[in-house]
Specification:
Number of helices: 12
Number of strands: 15
Helix content: 25-40%
Order of helices and strands: HEHEHEHHEEHHEEEHEEEEEHHHEEH
CATH architecture of the domain at 53-352 and 362-375: 4-Layer Sandwich
Shape: elongated
Length: 542
């Protein structure tokens, strides 16, 4: 039968192999770049602000990484979504947080870390202790610290404790928070600076009660152990070191105040809603400014970057009549901003010589900060992966359409060939006899006595190609068709079923349009998917 094999039966053409392998290589490069390298590339310009300062004798620098609103989600975060959408959303958001944290902590190498609240999206929700413990464990698994001795400080946010008295907020949330993350109000010393952590959620709730009862902050009997009580007890004593104030909720500012060029959208406006309040009240803000006289303020909650200078009726410890407040960007891609970020704070402490004590007012600033931004992960998904997927699919589809049409044109151009029947057995070749006998068997004619047809008449037939030809002659199913032989009324019959979008008359590699298209999609997709999984594993375990 080898003499009857068609000349066009061959493997996929080199152009097809090059096209598929080229798409594979391009996808692998894209995945490795955007899932691994882009984080280090974006953070390459992120540097501590103190490196630009001249060296000062006897100085020490404490570097603090400030992170706001990681707000890791759970199954309650998007109640209208289906299970699969929730699970996939949580996976990709957690994966982005892990990669961002892994790249950040390895790049900046801070001396201390501060989280500005809203650690979990639904830490305030009613749940069992075991579920809350698993939720908190997930937070610490995402934000792993290689150096377990590194000081880490946490502020509560409205998503951690619940702001207001809604029945959906757990009464156990405050106790659970302190058991896993530490106290609500506390202070510490970092680099000869006093760092104050204020529970802004409790301050808002106490401020509402104070205002309703008509008290001012001067004569208000503060709740024992609350935020107001904590601030008043600290302000009752003199303190020489500069104060850095950390609060989850931003301080009040005039309506329409500009947040600077680094903000993505709008400005911070006073307002409130279910479980949140955009800013502290004017009275609460002035209470903090007058009582603490901070040299620098950091806040979160808003998710976007904002820089504003609050006017002071007095000079701060540094001699300034204003105090800067930095609202730090959210660290998460799911908080309505395209570029998540964080803040770097350098606290410079100097031990001056006796002869330079009079020069302290003219000394370099001891508080330096700078924002850093993370990759636009949502933009990568929407503006890189999605268009590339569409182009790849359309390219593979167009290639397979062209292949199918070209194969069909070749079939139409073939000249039908006739199996010759020898005029006499003595004058025929053994190969022709064999071919003719196989042909008759394919029609169920085992011998001339089994059929009524004249065995002398020639039987013209278009020659079948490739494996489809051989499989039909041998009564087997090919990749494009299936056949079943049976006997009926003394004659051998056969039922053949061709698969859709394919032709039984094509060569072994001339598969149908859909079959070839989906095969190509799988061939192109699995290497970059494997690269994505490896990158995800490294971000989770390395």
């Amino acid at each position: 039968m080898s003499g009857y094999l068609p000349s066009d039966l061959k493997l996929w053409p080199p152009s097809h192999i090059m096209f598929v392998n080229g798409l594979r290589a391009a996808w692998i490069v894209v995945v490795i770049w955007y899932e691994v390298c882009t984080f280090d590339y974006v953070l390459d310009t992120c540097q501590w602000p103190d490196i630009h300062q001249p060296d000062t004798p006897n100085s020490r620098i404490a570097r603090v990484l400030v992170v706001a609103d990681p707000q890791i989600i759970d199954h309650r975060s998007y109640p209208t979504r289906g299970f699969l959408t929730k699970a996939s959303g949580q996976f990709f958001i957690d994966l982005n947080l892990r990669r961002s944290w892994h790249s950040t902590i390895n790049r900046v190498k801070p001396h201390a870390v501060v989280f500005l609240g809203d650690l979990m999206d639904n830490g305030r929700a009613t749940m069992s202790n075991s579920e809350y413990n698993a939720y908190a464990a997930r937070f610490f698994d995402i934000f792993k610290l290689k150096d377990l001795a590194m000081p880490t400080f946490f502020l509560p946010g409205n998503h951690d404790l619940g702001l207001g008295e809604d029945v959906s907020f757990s009464l156990e949330a405050p106790t659970r928070f302190t058991s896993h993350f530490g106290p609500w109000n506390h202070k510490t010393t970092i680099g000869n600076h006093t760092v104050m952590f204020i529970d802004a959620v409790a301050l808002v709730e106490e401020d509402v009660v104070r205002a309703d009862r008509g008290y001012s902050y001067d004569n208000w009997p503060a709740v024992a152990g609350g935020s107001v009580d904590f601030v008043k007890r600290y302000a009752a004593h003199e303190h020489a070191s500069p104060i850095v104030l950390f609060t989850h909720i931003p301080l009040a500012r005039p309506h329409g105040t500009d947040c600077g060029p680094l903000r993505e959208r709008g400005t911070i406006r006073q307002g409130q809603g279910f479980g949140y309040q955009n800013t502290l009240s004017n009275e609460a803000s002035q209470f903090l400014l007058h009582s603490l006289r901070p040299s620098l303020i950091f806040s979160g909650d808003d998710h976007d970057y904002c820089e504003y200078s609050h006017p002071l009726p007095f000079s701060s410890a540094s001699g300034s009549t204003t105090v800067r407040e930095i609202t730090v960007k959210s660290f998460s891609m799911a908080m309505g901003i395209r570029r998540p970020g964080f803040q770097l704070l350098s606290l410079i402490s100097t031990v001056p010589a006796l002869e330079t004590l009079t020069q302290l007012p003219n000394s370099p600033p001891s508080l330096l900060d700078t924002p850093c931004f993370l990759p636009d992960q949502l933009g990568i998904y929407l503006n890189v992966y999605l268009p590339f997927i569409l182009l790849s699919v359309l390219g593979l589809l167009a290639f397979n359409v062209h292949r199918t049409l070209a194969g069909g044109n070749k079939q139409a151009q073939r000249r039908p060939e006739v199996y010759p029947r020898p005029s006499h057995p003595e004058h025929s070749s053994s190969r022709a006899n064999s071919d003719y006998e196989l042909y008759r068997r394919s029609l169920g004619q085992t011998n001339t006595e089994d059929t009524d047809e004249d065995p002398i008449l020639p039987l013209p037939v278009t020659k079948l190609t490739g494996s489809a030809h051989s499989s039909k002659l041998r009564g087997r199913s090919s990749s494009s068709s299936h056949s079943w032989p049976f006997y009926f009324l003394g004659r051998r019959r056969r039922i053949s079923l061709s698969l859709p979008c394919s032709s039984a008359n094509r060569g072994v590699h001339e598969v149908g349009l859909l079959h070839g298209f989906f095969s190509d999609v799988v061939d192109v997709a699995w290497p970059p998917l494997l690269a994505f999984c490896v990158a995800a594993w490294c971000a989770t375990h390395v």
